Amino acid sequence: MRVVVVGSGLSAVGALKAIIKTGVKPVVIDVGRQLDAERQKIKLRLASVSPNNWSDDDVKSLASNFTSKSASAIPKKLVLGSDYFYSSDNSGSVQPDSFSQSSPTYSLALGGFSAGWGAAFLPPAESDIRDWPISHDEILEHMRECVKNISCSEPVDALSEFFPPLKNNSNDVLSLSKGQGKLLRTLRGAARSSSVAPEVFGQARIMTRSKNIGDLKGCNYCGHCSAGCVYDAIYKADIEIAQMRLGQQIDYLNGWNVVTVVESGGTVNISMIDVSSGEKKIIEADRLFLAAGAVNSTRILLQSQEMSGFEATIKQTGGFLQPFVSAVHYPVAWPNQNTQSNVFLEFKEPRLSDSWVHVQISQPNELAMAKLGLNHSTVNSVRGKLAKYVSGNLVVAIVNTHSDHGSKYVVRVRDNFVNGVAQLESKQILHPDQKHVVRVLNSRLKKIFRRKGAVALGFARQESFASVGYHFGSSFPMSTNPKLPTDTDQLGRPFGWKHVHIVDTSVLPSIPGTSIGLLAMANANRIATSALIN
């Protein structure tokens, strides 16, 4: 049997884990953009020594972030100063309510968005996936399967009662700095729960190696998590892709952009184009697992069915970023600390829904502190010391809501092509109650923080998409009884097909507020397992 997987992100890895387990050696087709050679050399050089021995020039290269120069915009996460893992059809942003020649951001990188984004995770609560045609227990089973060989910092604490642990290995937990630990202990005392409006705090769950395991290095607490971990302690999908290639478990074809997939009888024809030479090729497969990401999977399927002009909807989570100034001082240990999210707050707001609201809380990370004048070259200066002290009274909360309270993208393919790929037109439809949702949630959040002497900096609140993350999908949602042209069955099969399975976030019926990378990986693992066993 010839099995093909398109893509190399978290969903692709989830499917590959299941496929390899059956003894099949799949073919992976991927554009597979990577960090440029010069930056890879810097990364290897930094990884070979401890942070105390890094040169000033190397640290400057690591911390470089051209997006942090704006006085108002939220800086983007980069990898050693590179934005190679972000892509779009046009440099212009998607406009509200009217179509423009643009697209939501997608990734053509090896590893997808995981190449540059963090590795926070939290299993969904049952109430957050009630509209899914599969059970909560089944999703948890595959989440546990997927993290078997992934190092996770997952303490057992108050969150565990509502969000079941996946590994139960509390010995591999990242150490919090003195200030981070104080922040967690203080905020725990702010929780005021009831059966209809629970509030629960806990240490952030992060797919990050906390200590050395053989040749694999753990977190060195260098203070530059947002720049990409040079030690690869923060999980990325491309790490597993590399391991699969090294173990000859997969055949990896990089540099190819899949244009269309067509099922004919028991065969799937996959048309693709070499991104460098423009060479066109068609290969056949007995089974295809499409994990190109919500934007590109939607594009491929609309182009495959010649559905020019058809409007597909992509859901996204809602949310905002809210900084607080605190009367309680939480000493900052930067750069000797991990700067990923430190604390999770989960709560329900009955005035809106029964879905959980997910809040990632932390001291200002290195990008935020740089705006205050604190960086590697100023850390011992008067200005740097002052910025470091001031940072100890600042707390940042990033709020994510269920997609029921998020805006939507509407996309359609146009009749013009670039290198054989149909270009997208997109528009954004804001949630009709967006202002009300933000007002209600921020009111609740401010009330929680006020209990421990923290006041919101209202002027600094950010409601842009960049501030809350790239959590979107649902363009080809799974359904028990598919009816619409973009419905799929429980195995992610569109158009009544039998051998093509979408396995990325495109098929999630809705998007929980909690981080969805591991959730998408688990659903892909479930689909591939069921498809190949049956």
The Cα radius of gyration reads: 22 Å
How many helices? 12
* Unreliable residue stretches: none
Query: For this structure, what is the CATH class?
Result: Alpha Beta
Oligomer: single chain
**How many domains is the backbone divided into?**
1
Query: Order of strands side by side in the largest beta sheet?
Result: 3-11-12-13-10-16
CATH topology: FAD/NAD(P)-binding domain
What percentage of the residues does DSSP assign to strands (E)?
15-25%
Taking the alpha carbons of the first and last residues, their distance comes to 14 Å
Percent of residues in helices comes to: 10-25%
The profile of the biggest β sheet is:
6 strands, antiparallel
> What sequence of helices (H) and strands (E) makes up the elements?
EHEHHHHEHEEEEEHEEEEHHEEEHEHEEH
* Class from helix and strand fractions: alpha+beta
Q: Judging by the overall fold, what is the CATH architecture?
A: 3-Layer(bba) Sandwich
Q: Could you characterize the architecture of this molecule?
A:
The protein is globular and about 70 Å long. The chain has a single domain (3-533), classed as FAD/NAD(P)-binding domain (3-Layer(bba) Sandwich). 24% of the residues lie in helices and 20% in strands. With 534 residues, it is of the alpha+beta class. Helix 1 (10-21) links the parallel strand 1 and strand 2. Helix 1 (10-21) runs parallel beside helix 12, helix 2 (37-47) crosses helix 3 (56-63) and helix 4 (136-146) packs across helix 12 (517-533). The chain has a six-stranded antiparallel beta sheet with strand order 3-11-12-13-10-16. A five-stranded parallel beta sheet has the order 4-2-1-8-18, with helices on one face. Strands 15-14-9-17 form a four-stranded antiparallel beta sheet.
